[in-house]
Amino acid sequence: METTNPFVHVFLFECGGCGNPIRLAIPDSARNLEGTDAKAFALLCDICGWSGKAVGTEAKRHWVDTWEHWVDMGQPDEEWT
Taking the domains of the chain in order of start, what are their residue ranges? Predict the structure, then answer.
């Protein structure tokens, strides 16, 4: 289902296993960084297979950009609220 969210929050985390970057993009109707920084995310490294959880404030980088359309594939993790 296609939804309209005017913003996408992009997070860049460091893998707890190998140190490589783990990227995550989250659509949101708000541009505010603080709201998504407080959420918890499930992380999975494509390089070494490490998995873990982190809140947005643990990201190495977090930025917001405008986004016109997003195909809703469900929540990336049941616990991110």
Answer: 2-71
